[in-house]
TrEMBL record, chain B:
Protein name: Succinate dehydrogenase/fumarate reductase iron-sulfur subunit
Family: Belongs to the succinate dehydrogenase/fumarate reductase iron-sulfur protein family.
NCBIfam families in the cross-refs: PRK07570.1
Annotated TM spans: none
UniProt lineage: Bacteria, Bacillati, Actinomycetota, Actinomycetes, Kitasatosporales
Cofactor: [3Fe-4S] cluster; [2Fe-2S] cluster
Gene3D superfamilies: 3.10.20.30, Alpha-helical ferredoxin (1.10.1060.10)
Record-linked InterPro entries: 2Fe-2S_ferredoxin-like_sf, 2Fe2S_fd_BS, 4Fe4S_Fe-S-bd, 4Fe4S_Fe_S_CS, Beta-grasp_dom_sf, Helical_ferredxn, SDH/FRD_Iron-Sulfur, Succ_DH/fum_Rdtase_N
A Pfam short name: Fer2_3
Occurrences of domain 4Fe-4S ferredoxin-type (ranges): 149-179
Length: 244, 248
């Protein structure tokens, strides 16, 4: 009934010997997988930013509360974790996220630009609005992260720079107009980045569908607005003398 | 109608090209865009010039051959194919820019004609189901729920025109590839290759030099068949699922 049986078996075996690379290699090598890395690291950073923004608002309760909060952050997990360990774990996770996010963004952007080598003679700028704000906004955010760490973490460029007194350092900082400008521009860039990024991450992770689409877009806008407003509230309050 | 056309002319692959200006007169607003180009070409031939090369076949909006970018929009201002675009959507005296699809994976063959065989290779890598050949299957042998059939059909409507790639600022083929993946992956007939299909088609897509997706959504706005942007989210989900399962 099956005269060709031996051939069929050989073919089946031959097909089965085709080995796929490991899941991680599959992810990193494909555009879809690399975008997943961006989405996951983006969401990690986003969660951090929400907590960070809420923590910053403690500045409105005065220097004792704010400095006490900063000290408490170092005691989280005690006695299981030693002093500052939780903070350092967070820093490592965030540094890895920023690095993976930026490397993926760079590699994907290079590829995207190469895939469209010739521009149309008839230009429609709207077409690449989101892509361009994400790339330039991302670069602005990357530069801001460096400046921000030098300013308020290592205190290298802070005008006061007294370790353990973040409230006083923040106030000294935002009395300078250039610090306010840098900070506000970066937070506007953040708002634009999150506005596209949150919805985009849902799309990348396959969490979007026709029913959820408008709810996700609404959440993205709300998140962008709340984050930007919450972060900008601090320099604006120092500038206007509400916090001093 | 009298129109000024600025058309991309390029004698062959690897040859330099340029936007070239032509005046056409006596255009009826009931003509399709392709008939308008036919009118121009008749004149060019009579004048001893080389006619403008463009792809076309069915001229009824179902084959996907007639791709060209009109005034910066794939297939022009209406959401349809160029053969179904009528001149009444333009005004007398308009200047119209006509260019080929622009993407590294779609090299220009001549004038407005591009080589879209990259799409064929993506389909060849997984856009099929393994079915016994011979007699037609019994229609009720594999039940398909109505909502599933509707989803499959919505995505099966893709005609492979390439407008999505042409419209994407990254020259990405995600909408096309996801239309094919979703069409077959939701059906029971496509289940045996569910994982290998998405992994192989994404690998083929990347291998052809298409860009990645930045979720700008230009593709779905340009698609003449209304393939939804969510198709890409579904393909991403299928891809992650298949990667997790370490598909054979
Ligand atoms: C402040 C921290 C940051 C957060 C919270 C963040 C968040 C996100 C999220 C959620 C996405 C969406 C991923 C997806 O589409 O699936 C994204 C995309 C992107 N991010 Fe970031 N990001 C941050 C910093 C950066 C930095 C430093 C860069 C620059 C190197 C960058 C460049 C990009 C680019 C180019 C995209 C892709 C844009 C697109 O989809 O068109 N981001 N980001
Ligand atoms: S998804 Fe739409 S635009 Fe893309 S090839 Fe298919 S029919 Fe054309
Ligand atoms: S010629 Fe077939 S779709 Fe236009």
């Amino acid at each position: 009934m099956y005269p060709a049986l031996p051939t069929v078996c050989v073919m089946a075996l031959a097909t089965r010997t085709v080995r796929r690379p490991s899941p991680l290699a599959t992810l990193w090598r494909s555009t879809v997988g690399k975008k997943t890395v961006m989405a996951v690291t983006g969401v990690i950073m986003l969660l951090f930013l929400v907590v960070h923004m809420l923590g910053n608002l403690k500045i409105f309760f005065g220097s004792t509360d704010f400095n006490g909060y900063a000290h408490w952050l170092r005691t989280i997990g005690e006695p299981a974790l030693h002093y500052s360990w939780f903070l350092w774990i967070t820093r490592v996770v965030l540094a890895a996220s920023v690095a993976l996010h930026a490397v993926s963004a760079y590699q994907l952007s290079r590829r995207d630009l190469a895939a469209r080598p010739t521009a149309y003679a008839h230009r429609r700028p709207r077409a690449s609005y989101a892509t361009r704000t994400m790339r330039w906004g991302g670069v602005i955010l990357g530069l801001f992260i460096v400046w921000h760490l030098l300013d308020l973490t290592t205190l290298t460029v802070n005008p006061r720079g007294e370790a353990g007194h973040p409230y006083q350092n923040v106030v000294a900082d935002f009395r300078n107009w250039y610090a306010d400008v840098v900070y506000i521009v970066a937070m506007l860039a953040l708002g634009l980045h999150v506005r596209h990024g949150f919805w985009s991450a849902a799309q990348t992770l396959g969490a979007n569908n026709a029913r959820r689409d408008s709810a996700l877009k609404f959440t993205a806008n709300a998140l962008a607005l709340v984050l930007t407003a919450g972060f900008i509230a601090v320099p604006v309050s120092v500038m206007t003398g509400v916090v001093s | 109608m009298r129109l000024t056309l600025r058309i991309w002319r390029q004698r062959g692959p690897e040859r330099p090209g340029a936007m070239t200006t032509y005046e056409v007169d006596g255009i009826s607003e009931d003509m399709s865009f392709l008939e308008m180009l036919d009118t121009l070409n008749e004149r060019l031939i009579l004048e001893g010039d080389e006619p403008v090369a463009f792809d076309h076949d069915c001229r009824e909006g179902i084959c996907g051959a007639c791709g060209m970018v009109i005034n910066g929009q794939a297939h022009g201002p209406e959401r349809t194919t160029t053969c179904q675009l009528h001149m009444r959507h333009f005004a007398d005296g308009d200047t119209i820019d006509v260019e080929p699809w622009r993407a590294a994976a779609f090299p220009v063959v001549k004038d407005l004609v591009v080589d879209r065989s990259a799409f064929d290779r993506i389909i060849g890598s997984g856009g099929y189901v393994t079915a016994p050949t011979g007699s037609a299957p019994e229609a009720h042998a594999t039940p398909v729920p109505k909502p599933v059939a509707d989803t499959a059909f919505e995505h099966a409507e893709c005609i492979g025109c390439g407008a999505c790639v042409a419209a994407c600022p990254n020259g990405s083929a995600m909408l096309f590839t996801s239309a094919k993946v979703v069409h077959l992956n939701v059906l029971p007939q496509g289940a045996p290759e569910r994982e290998s299909r998405v992994l192989d088609m994404v690998a083929a897509m990347d291998g052809e030099g298409f860009g990645g997706c930045t979720n700008t959504g230009e593709c779905a706005l340009a698609c003449p068949k209304g393939v939804p942007l969510q198709a890409i989210a579904t393909m991403n989900r299928e891809f992650l699922r298949a990667t997790r399962k370490g598909a054979r």
